[in-house]
Design goal:
alpha/beta, five-stranded mixed beta sheet, acetylation, dipeptidyl-peptidase activity
């Protein structure tokens, strides 16, 4: 029971992301553009293996070599010949590896590959069960001997050099009893050289607070070469000058390790309004960095869904009317709302550790505050991810289930739209720049929580991520989710999405019910041993559940019960008659606090508030530690997605689609990298082996 969260069932759901019709409607030039962007994304996405855990790259290569030689069906026959049953075929990997054709052809290499990852693959030692820093878990953003204090010192150093942490990793070494730190930048170029627009002295050795820091280029170099090469090829098929300039800057970023170049590319990306083929690529989200500053590589390529995008365009047009409805004073809102693109997309390619339902980017505070951003909703992801079977719907009353299934998709569409556009797109950061200039009037702005003048703000190169570090991602997701809950009560918003009358009320009810249920489900992602959360969004939803439970007056009910099978179960209920009163008031108060603490860079106050609601204990009105065991007992594994491939066929691009099954998923990956598979696998193993001593 204790370790059940670390096991996945063999019958996990697998679904294909359908983008065939959208792709075939593209012109030949647009298809070429999408192809090379996709290739860049897929190669860059392999860096995630090197950003996760020491064994990840080796496991990937092991499986690629197995399945390049034999399909799953052929391997099942091998397993049967080796005396394994159908169930054992899926569970007893070592026996299958040794009986495989890949092993027969290269026994020494395959034995070494198996030995390099098998122990860690199955390890359930406390530190190796989850991502974390120091003794709280495993990460390859930092060498194994780094702790929170090292991460904090490195952040101060990076701030002093005006370097972003987004594309870095940190390695701590001992030099005669003195700690030395290596900051490694992701780049194709491995030698030190000046980059236009970047601090010329960013690479080299420096003394900072009596510690030696060395900044080097060349992390993931072989992968960054492939990313840059494909982006250069995509330039020939760009639709306009903004796209060409964007790709030039991205190429410069991945070639030289320049975040400034990536920011410049992002500026051109924002200016590229309404493209038919939408994309973004880089070291983007910091959710999986235990310190919350380093970005995981991701890249997506998608085609605009025009019908759904019209709804989001109406929401954008209404934004300036809706923003004043939010519960903070106008001084805490951006001076000007920069109307972004907001489109619904059918994903062709999404390379990274997972596929979200929506995105608000870029994540650079200075650009978002003064130049703008874009929002996207991933329509074909939503269509597949949130299809629910009644018999698998847990923790709800029977009378809620049919309504939940009917309105879960439409309500989530509303929530995603509000979350991305008016959640992540709202709120002002108070900043004093390097020249001492403020972006707000100190003499006039009052903190609504204290009634006193604002007394704290961001200084110089400080950013939201660098300041709030470990809680920044989840705190911001919580703020955006609260905005969605709050504004979905607005009839104008519901009308934009086509919901009127009773249907509109049902959408509101299911959206709020879905949120409190998600807060309960979020307990799966809490680790009691380290008292830490492993997933930013689920922590955010648990916090919201706590806030709404605290509101009282019967708004939310949560009780432990016995299931029909006699095992522990739980029921969560929501009084729909109190959403517009008790619920709205609770979110109003909490959301205002979140924004004020964020605007004023009040890290101490922000941590106290957020950590307090994030606490999972066995005391109080609800025993959340015991409820967590119930959640694990009845959890449903998340679906996996199968994505298509593209390949050049003469002067045109062919879309290769796969069935929504484990075999289809495997085939998509073996064919995705088949042109240079052996060299690519060798490069991954070399990069993994080079850093192996750093994780001990």
């Amino acid at each position: 029971m204790v370790d059940s969260q670390y096991y996945l069932p063999n019958d996990i759901g697998v679904s294909a992301l359908d983008c065939g019709e959208a792709f075939r409607l593209l012109s030949p030039q647009e298809q070429m553009y999408a192809h090379y962007l996709s290739r860049a994304a897929w190669y860059g996405g392999l860096a995630v293996l090197l950003q996760t855990s020491p064994e990840s790259a080796n496991i990937f290569v092991l499986l690629q070599r197995l399945f390049r030689k034999q399909t799953p069906a052929q391997l099942e026959q091998v397993a049967t010949a080796a005396g394994l049953s159908a169930e054992e075929y899926q569970d007893k990997l070592k026996a299958l590896v040794k009986a495989s054709q890949a092993f027969q052809e290269q026994p020494t290499e395959m034995e070494a590959l198996w030995d390099s990852c098998s122990c860690l693959l199955y390890s359930l030692e406390d530190r190796q069960k989850q991502l974390g820093l120091g003794d709280k878990g495993i990460t390859t953003y930092f060498s194994g001997n780094c702790c929170l204090e090292d991460a904090e010192l490195a952040q101060k150093f990076l701030d002093s050099k005006k370097l972003s942490a987004y594309n870095t990793r940190l390695f701590k070494k001992d030099n005669g009893g003195k700690a030395c730190y290596e900051v490694r930048l992701a780049s194709a170029v491995q030698k030190d050289c000046a980059v236009d627009g970047e601090c010329e002295s960013c690479c080299g050795s420096f003394n900072f607070e009596d510690k030696e820091f060395t900044v080097k280029r060349g992390d993931y170099a072989k992968l960054m070469e492939k990313v840059s090469s494909n982006l250069q090829q995509a330039q020939a098929y760009a639709a306009n000058e903004n796209q060409r300039k964007m790709l030039e800057e991205y190429t410069r970023s991945f070639t030289f390790g320049s975040v400034e170049a990536h920011k410049e590319g992002s500026r051109y990306w924002i200016k590229d309004k309404g493209p038919i083929v939408e994309s973004y690529i880089g070291f983007i989200e910091s959710y999986r960095d235990p310190f919350g500053s380093r970005g995981e590589f991701e890249g997506f390529v998608a085609v605009v869904n025009k019908a759904m995008s019209e709804r989001f365009a109406k929401l954008v047009s209404s934004a300036e009317v809706l923003l004043p409805e939010l519960p903070w004073p106008k001084e805490f809102e951006k001076d000007t709302f920069l109307k972004p693109d907001f489109t619904s997309l059918d994903v062709l390619t999404f390379a990274g550790s997972g596929i979200p339902a929506g995105i608000n980017i870029p994540n650079y505070d200075d650009i978002r505050q003064s130049e703008g951003f874009k929002n996207v909703s991933l329509g074909n992801v939503l269509a597949v991810a949130y299809a629910t079977q009644k018999e698998k719907l847990t923790f709800l009353e029977e009378e809620d289930k049919d309504l939940f299934i009917k309105w879960k998709g439409p309500s989530f569409e509303v929530q995603v739209g509000l979350h991305e556009l008016l959640g992540h797109g709202s709120g002002k950061l108070f900043v004093q720049d390097d020249k001492g200039k403020f972006n707000f009037d100190q003499s006039k702005v009052t903190n609504p929580e204290t009634g006193e003048p604002v007394s704290s703000w961001y200084r110089g190169s400080e950013t939201w991520d660098s300041k709030f570090s470990t809680i920044a991602s989840s705190y911001e997701e919580c703020r955006a989710e609260c905005v969605g809950l709050y504004l979905c009560l607005n009839k104008q918003v519901l009308s934009i999405f086509g919901h009127e009358g009773q249907d509109a009320e049902d959408v509101v009810y299911v959206n709020w019910l879905s949120m409190v249920r998600a807060g309960l489900l979020g307990l799966e992602f809490y680790t009691p041993e380290s008292k830490s959360w492993r997933q930013a969004h689920m922590q955010a939803r648990f916090v919201i559940l706590r806030v709404l439970l605290e509101a009282g007056e019967g708004l939310v009910g949560l009780e432990e019960v016995a299931g029909q099978d006699g095992k522990p179960d739980a029921r969560i209920t929501l009084d729909r008659s109190k959403i517009h009163t008790v619920g709205k008031d609770a979110i109003h108060r909490f959301l205002c606090k979140l924004q004020v603490l964020k605007s004023t860079a009040d890290v101490e106050g922000g941590r106290a508030l957020y950590d307090g609601y994030s606490t999972v204990s066995d005391s109080g009105a609800h025993n959340f530690l015991r409820l967590r065991e119930t959640i694990l007992l009845r959890k449903e594994a998340r679906k996996m997605f199968v994505q298509a491939n593209t390949k050049v066929n003469g002067d045109s691009i062919e879309l290769v689609e796969y069935e929504g099954s484990a075999a289809g998923l495997i085939r998509s990956f073996t064919e995705r990298f088949q042109d240079d598979a052996e060299q690519l696998e060798a490069d991954l193993l070399e990069m993994s082996k080079r850093d192996a001593p750093c994780w001990c």
